[in-house]
Amino acid sequence: MKHEEKINAFRLRKSGRSYKEILKKIKVSKSTLSVWLREIELTNDQKKRLLTKGERAQYEAAKRKVAARIQRTEKIIESAIEEAYTFKNNPFFLVGVALYWAEGAKNRAESVKFANSDEKMIAFMMRWFREICRVPEKKFRIHIHIHTLHSRNNIVNYWSKITGIGREQFYKPYIKQTSLGQRKNILYSGTCSIVIHDKSLFRRIMGWKYGLQKIFDISS
């Protein structure tokens, strides 16, 4: 009897029935039914049918929100690709895009982040963000990573001078433990990360990158 009930429960669930609907036809506990049916995956249409009126409204609103975000992203990227063609003869623009393409963050969070230990490269990218990207000063955040072996009290002041950003816009430095076997490099000042929480700028930079790929005929 249990075997027949289980088979019937499988058939009903695969047809898109809710647990409540199945329990009206099969007299078992909800916990038993959950164990039987836990590996059955419903289609998106079936899941949508099982939503309450309120849940369905939330689902549709979420779909519209995602569609709008995708549309905004595509519009920003398309515009940035056109900009890349406009600025293709500007070496300052090209070098900055290429450096970000190589060293910058390409994450799902869509935050702009560029990290390097070379002070001149950091100074270059700060100028690029200011002059090409037009980033407002208040949006910059700086994060320093350094080993205990090289850590020193003036490290924030050092990178503040390089970046032109005040200490109040620095995150607390991340100090990594260092093995005793390493030799101290007095010229090493850690890694400086320039962080800008701006999704639109991130998408724009990605659009510039795609533009360079088209200009130089580089397949994605």
Write structural notes for this entry:
This protein has 220 residues and is an alpha+beta fold. The protein folds into two domains: 49 residues; 150 residues, no CATH class. It is built from nine helices and four strands; from the N terminus they run ααααααβαβαββα. A four-stranded mixed sheet has the order 1-4-2-3. The protein is elongated. The model has no long low-confidence stretch (mean pLDDT 86).
What order do the helices and strands come in, and which of them pair?
Elements: H1 2-14, H2 19-25, H3 30-37, H4 44-49, H5 53-86, H6 91-103, E1 112-116, H7 119-131, E2 140-147, H8 155-163, E3 174-176, E4 191-196, H9 199-215
Parallel strand pairs: 2-3
Antiparallel strand pairs: 1-4, 2-4
Write the element-wise H/E pattern from the N-terminal end onward.
Answer: HHHHHHEHEHEEH
The share of residues in extended strands comes to 5-15%
**Kindly, what is the distance between the CA atoms of the first and last residues, rounded to a whole number of angstroms?**
58 Å
The residue-averaged pLDDT reads: 86
Radius of gyration, in angstroms, nearest whole number: 27 Å
The tally of helices reads: 9
Biggest β-sheet: count, sense, barrel? 4 strands, mixed
- The parts where pLDDT drops under 50 for at least 5 residues are none
Which structural class do you get from the secondary structure elements? alpha+beta
Number of strands: 4
Largest sheet strand order: 1-4-2-3
Give the total of domains: 2
Give the % helix: 40-55%
